[in-house]
């Protein structure tokens, strides 16, 4: 008989092979560009208690590993062989689904009449109805504007299609045929998972397999705790912001306190974060104690420091969440949540900042923290049908880290999303990709610089088309640098008209395009790590030769003189002499000019208002925040005196208190 520990490792690798095969089936059989090219989908094997015990490493979305599936499983007490559940309802599933375009499927795996596990798959559906093509508009303020909603229901019952559900999905989407093709790809993956698990049971036995599943999860938990025990015990607080809520210019505060003990458990307390907003930024996490979207930075930290770690939900067991009710990180029905991942990215940056404080900057600086998902929609001139395709998810660069430069054109929280090849997009839609390249001088300067941002230029060649751009961010607050590194650069969006004129459209998420319009989207550069004056001149030279840094920036920022393609060492020594490197404070953050301007005028008031909001009834907090800033603005230009802030908040509290019973 095989030794149990050996069997555990053998089966762990078998399970990984199963989910990788499931994932590749989706990738090869999917119909929409966003699934087959961008890879916004995932597969997994799930225990009967709702924990992912196997998850792909190399394909699909990695950030959903450990998504709470328990509510979906508990939706039925009559699971039968051949069943497949489907749902896209964030609130009915309490954090299993995070926005309406995500269709989640669950298939029970039986052996001799006994439930063994579940096969799971999800895809981002390119259209589920709603107020705009692609279903996500940043200005949506309630779930009903974002598309159809399916509570957990059986798409297939006992092997037979529930045609009413299929019809409902088709009738409420602009691209029913493509959606059906993607769903069929997911079903094939689930069938494959069921088949492979049955084969493993035939080979190793059901009970040994179930024991190994538990031990594999326990093993990942132990490895994760071993990493987290290295974080010095204490409380580490960091505040980051979404730079606005798309309906006002008031930033959205995301505050986290990382509490580290000596048992290998980390608590992420998001108390102090802003209430949910009247825009599509809310995270409907269902008040879960464990959720991957708010633990991204910790999961990445664990994976980086644990060689051979099996990627499963055991990792999340030691990352606990404390989430305020009706907040941006724990929204209540029916708050809109179409672009909730933008808030997850900023939560990642906040946790990363807390980790930097806890570990003495043993983590990277902030990355671009944005994802401008760009969709092209056209109304066919022949048959009037609407065609929707994702052009590209435009990102910026990662932050520089303690051991390496940042990566250009991608950021850690969304590193799983792939680019759409220009040839594929141009074959499917009447557009031309004019440019897709890195932006010189967009890196956050540092001893280890941030990754460069990207520019994407898309020309529209159809008279009846609309471009949807969701998730634009970092147009005001730069990605922060750390340990003496500089903040990264900002992004922007422009339209170049046929006459050559440029129009800055800012963060507007919808553009009605004219033939010949060229959409120009620029992603932010990641923050730098360490003083740029400490960067080796040879590395600065390589950046200049690669076109990432100009000669002028090398001289003015890095203190390196480049002449005739080489380093002028004498002039470099002169430039650097007398200039102090900025790494005198190991945990110093460069938050950038935009953040500093906000803090100088509104920082004190923001902290007071945030603390005051926590004392208000959860359902009143969003309204109270809106009134606080508008009424304070009416008293004069910020910064406001503390007595003015206190009086204003007291007046609002008294007035709202009189109406709470309604």
Describe this structure in words.
With 662 residues, this protein is α+β, with helices and mostly antiparallel strands. Helices cover 31% and strands 20% of the residues. The protein is built from 15 helices and 24 strands. The strands form six sheets. A seven-stranded antiparallel β-sheet has the order 2-1-5-4-3-6-7. β12 (372-379) and β13 (386-394) form a beta hairpin. The mean pLDDT is 92.
Key features?
globular, alpha+beta, 662 residues, seven-stranded antiparallel sheet, 15 helices, five-stranded antiparallel sheet, single chain
**Count of DSSP strands:** 24
Q: Strand content of the residues, in percent? A: 15-25%
Mean pLDDT over the full residue set: 92
Helix proportion range:
25-40%
Radius of gyration of CA atoms, rounded to a whole number: 25 Å
If helices are DSSP runs of H or I spanning 4 or more residues, what is the number of helices?
15
Low-pLDDT residue spans: none
Q: Choose one word for the global shape.
A: globular
Terminal CA distance: 68 Å
Sheet with most strands = 7 strands, antiparallel
Query: What class do helices, strands and sheet pairing give?
Result: alpha+beta
Oligomer: single chain
Strand order of the largest sheet: 2-1-5-4-3-6-7
Gist?
This protein has about 650 residues and is an alpha+beta fold. The protein is built from 15 helices and 24 strands.
How do the strands and helices of this protein lay out in sequence?
Layout: H1 4-29, H2 33-36, E1 41-46, E2 52-54, H3 70-74, E3 84-87, E4 102-111, E5 114-124, E6 153-157, E7 160-161, H4 163-171, H5 176-204, H6 206-228, E8 234-242, E9 252-260, E10 266-269, H7 296-304, E11 319-322, H8 340-359, E12 372-379, E13 386-394, H9 422-428, E14 431-438, E15 454-460, E16 465-470, E17 481-482, E18 492-496, E19 502-504, E20 510-513, E21 518-522, H10 537-545, H11 551-556, E22 562-563, E23 566-567, H12 569-576, E24 589-590, H13 593-613, H14 621-635, H15 642-657
Parallel strand pairs: 10-11
Antiparallel strand pairs: 1-2, 1-5, 3-4, 3-6, 4-5, 6-7, 8-9, 9-10, 12-13, 12-16, 14-15, 15-21, 16-20, 17-24, 18-19, 18-21, 22-23
Helix pairs in contact: 1-5, 1-6, 4-5, 14-15
